[in-house]
Amino acid sequence: MSLLMSKQRIKAFLSFNSKIQRISKVQLHRMTKMFPPIREAKIDKKIETISTEPMFDHNIISSQHSGLFTLLPFGLRAVEKLINIIDAQMKKAGCQKLYLPHLTSTSLWKKSGRYDDCGSEIFRLHDSKNHEYLLSPTHEEAITSLVSSFQPLSHSNLPIYVYQISTKFRDEKRSKHGLLRSREFLMKDLYTFDKNLTAAKDTYKTIVNVYDDLFTNLGIPFKKVKANVGTIGGIKSHEFHVLSDVGEDSILSCTSCGFSANIDVLSDEHLNTCQSCGTALITKKGIEVGHSFLLGTKYSVPLSAQFKDEDGFHPMYMGCYGIGITRLLAAGIEVLSTENQLIWPKNLAPFKVCLIPPKRGSKEECASHWCYHLEYLINEIANYKDEVVVDDRLKLTVGKRYNYAKEFGFPIIIIVGKSAVNRIPMFELFQENNKMVLSQSDLLQYLKTH
Amino acid sequence: MSLLMSKQRIKAFLSFNSKIQRISKVQLHRMTKMFPPIREAKIDKKIETISTEPMFDHNIISSQHSGLFTLLPFGLRAVEKLINIIDAQMKKAGCQKLYLPHLTSTSLWKKSGRYDDCGSEIFRLHDSKNHEYLLSPTHEEAITSLVSSFQPLSHSNLPIYVYQISTKFRDEKRSKHGLLRSREFLMKDLYTFDKNLTAAKDTYKTIVNVYDDLFTNLGIPFKKVKANVGTIGGIKSHEFHVLSDVGEDSILSCTSCGFSANIDVLSDEHLNTCQSCGTALITKKGIEVGHSFLLGTKYSVPLSAQFKDEDGFHPMYMGCYGIGITRLLAAGIEVLSTENQLIWPKNLAPFKVCLIPPKRGSKEECASHWCYHLEYLINEIANYKDEVVVDDRLKLTVGKRYNYAKEFGFPIIIIVGKSAVNRIPMFELFQENNKMVLSQSDLLQYLKTH
């Protein structure tokens, strides 16, 4: 009888495996095929941050040169998920996406006045015709010049909300903590153009609310604080901070009225008590993950971004709104993780499910086919398509692979283990601190609703 | 009766419009809201290429500085579609995606020997610590160094297929024809690492077949030709060319046996007759859109990308495989388009459907609601989600907007016109050279199957 079951199972396994191969749209993910190969975590961990070393150890990022990082396949999957979420939020807010060149002529920065303000943190270079360019850290000049090139624009063409997601460059002298402070980083930068200050202020409110929603939906605790406009300039500015001891900004907050500001904007007499309600302020360190600027006409006047109405030509009122995508991912991981376990912001784990088949040569090995069977069925659930990785390092015990999956932070871990050889096979599903032992149909039902 | 219908329709319109607004996942696309605003095509067209000027006129690309292009929202939509198609093909072939820094230390290029070979076409710069970097045109050194950093690797870790899609830089002195030859461009670059030459040759065959499929599926006519390995080096190389008079390479082809080569690789005595079968060769110009190299150990030896087996350490055998994404899009448009009409490669048009409601003040205006009704229903069809743009420039006649849509190359144009006021409203659907007059249900049925 048990031999018969085994034959049936082998047949089922083969049939399902070939079925999986035929589903060309789903790439099968196997730990043994992952580049780079999975490694043992290093023992000599630095303790400055909780997550930076584990992100190296777990093949999320890699670095060959100071401040320059490769997003490895695991890391890029997380980043692409974050990009998709941000794209959806931006488009919902009526923003249109474009893609500007990375090289900006310094002639534009001379027009805006930023060329002299920005120091050695900007990478500069000359082309073979000796024209000077910079590797853009932001694109206020480039986008304003672009908008201006479509003159004449009328008031009916406004507002214009345009954004891009691209690599930005900054020659950080103190690049550190992995993606938290790097010299190349992915940024979402939105630029808005309105017909007057009132409209620009309304836009500002709208986008700041979008940011609130975005960070909240990602499950990343953040604080919106008053900030200095700095070299980018403008009328007012807010920063979005993830509070963490590894942050480099000092954030003062009032526990009573909710007032919050970067220490940069407070005068000496306001450093101790809240300027709104007089309560004592508390100080925490913050990692800046987003920044909004009400720019006014700082760029539109020198770069001639105008519109026409019945009264003639007027400069547009601008805003700019950045999110450091790679930094946001890293900051989220840093504040959510524990010393023993990476925890990813909501919906950003590289794979939602890690499936663990039995060890080779173990008593449960005859149940291995259930693993690939489950892989197929879970991929059929819309929200889990392309979200399953099988840890097929069959030389390792299930326990060892479970520990790895836990450390890595896969939100759902499913073990095909001892109970999978039952007449009605049962599977162990782990999510957060819960363990469930479920039949196949219950397991699929659970996933459909989680 | 007609008044009653009209009231019902207005009610239906309002109800559907609010329903559309509630579908937060679908962004509504309106020509009047597009940035940049739609313009009249310029009369003084240059005639060197068929498509470059129309791509500027139709807000697909824009340029502020020589050889540097912005992908405007229409252009970026097409590029993102092409990226998704390439991603799917790469993943189907078992490739893993990562993202390397754009800056590569020139110390790596000195190790590989490419630093001296590559002339002034490489952008170079120094950081504030006077370390020299280049803006990578390709990443052989960077990826080989990355792979090497994960030593020790065993034969069981091979093959490694890793690719990225990112902006590449080349300081072209003769940048021209828009995206066909620009100084920043999007490229897909795949690097493969095998345990020996035989395995590397098998990989080469596999990837070249993937390229064949890709170009074929896009409906872009191409020719695979023998090519020079140039400064990238290696054992053998093929280029993928789109044949066009604006191409800069000379491609010699035999009409009898199918032999095809870039003129660069042929010795003088083989320029006239086929070296395989003796037939006279014909010469055409080609735009290089893809390039494959069997690299051998050119990079793995100097940069120590080794693996270990029972006999000790061995260098890996590499291949590299590029596709110029922005150039492929532009080359496809160039060879498919006519003088009066852009024609996009298959599945790459920025929107599949352009919907045209009646002119404001026209007799048909009372049928306008059907347009937004259709927009909603078409968005419900899986393949058409987010694929509808409404040309709501209601001041313009339907005819004028139809001509615009035709010139732009929307694959499907739907007019809500005279027949939409019938008791059973009928709509005009145009695809390629066919015109159909369809009821709502027939129209939806047609789209579901096309």
Automatic annotation (TrEMBL), chains A, B:
Keywords on record: Aminoacyl-tRNA synthetase, ATP-binding, Ligase, Nucleotide-binding, Protein biosynthesis
InterPro entries under this entry?
A: aa-tRNA-synt_IIb, aa-tRNA-synth_II, aa-tRNA-synth_II/BPL/LPL, Anticodon-bd_dom_sf, Pro-tRNA-ligase_IIa, Pro-tRNA_synthetase, ProRS_core_prok
Report the EC code(s) recorded for this entry. 6.1.1.15
Query: Which Gene3D superfamilies would you find in this protein's record?
Result: Anticodon-binding domain, Bira Bifunctional Protein, Domain 2
Q: Does the keyword Zinc apply?
A: no
- Mind telling me what this protein is named? Probable proline--tRNA ligase, mitochondrial
Q: Which gene encodes it?
A: PARS2
Nucleotide-binding as a keyword of this entry, yes or no, is yes
What's a Pfam family this protein contains? tRNA-synt_2b
A Gene Ontology BP annotation from the UniProt entry:
prolyl-tRNA aminoacylation
Chain ranges of the Aminoacyl-transfer RNA synthetases class-II family profile domain: 75-345
Molecular function as annotated in GO: ATP binding; proline-tRNA ligase activity
